[in-house]
Amino acid sequence: MKKLLAKLILKLVGWKVVLEGDVDNLDRCILVVAPHTSNAEYLLGNLAYWSLGKKLKVIIKDAHTKAWYGFIVKAIGGIGIDRSQKNDLVKFVVDLFKKEDFSLVITPEGTRSRVPKWRKGFYHMALAAKVPIVYAAGDFKKKVMYLGKKISVEELESRSFEEIMTDMEEYYKKIHPKYPENWNPKIF
């Protein structure tokens, strides 16, 4: 039901999903979503994932899971984290992946505002959990959600962080964010 509903909503709003790799790439990974200039990317990304019948989770401020609408946030994959406390998010993510298969959404910018560079946590989470990194992007000019380009665990372990980031930077340069003024295409 969720799959059909997601396909219908995407069609009604004029968006399409382009799969850039095997659909199975989306089963167990760190899903790097960029550019992140609006909450619309999350909503469209959820619909794209649901349209493919895949399971998605996202780490967010616990205020959203504790609010009156928290049951909705949790139902669509929200995992609340108290950001006022020091958390070992890498260990937390590794433990989550030991329990189940899913894609974990990470927005390395960490905010919808322009940042000088990305945070590196997504890279360390993928290495520690031994899961691939998969690219995801919403192009607001073309109205396309791109999903599925993968950096395998073997690549993560054999290539340098700088090489991987250079490839990612090149990939995301072609994407048109909702608010271009909030996007810094120089990610590291």
From TrEMBL:
Organism: Kaistella daneshvariae
Pathway: Lipid metabolism
Gene Ontology MF annotations: 1-acylglycerol-3-phosphate O-acyltransferase activity
Protein name: Glycerol acyltransferase
Any single Pfam family the record assigns to this protein: Acyltransferase
Keyword annotations of the record: Acyltransferase, Transferase
Phospholipid/glycerol acyltransferase domain residues: 30-141
SUPFAM superfamilies listed in its UniProt record: Glycerol-3-phosphate (1)-acyltransferase
Superkingdom of origin organism: Bacteria
Gene Ontology biological process: phosphatidic acid biosynthetic process
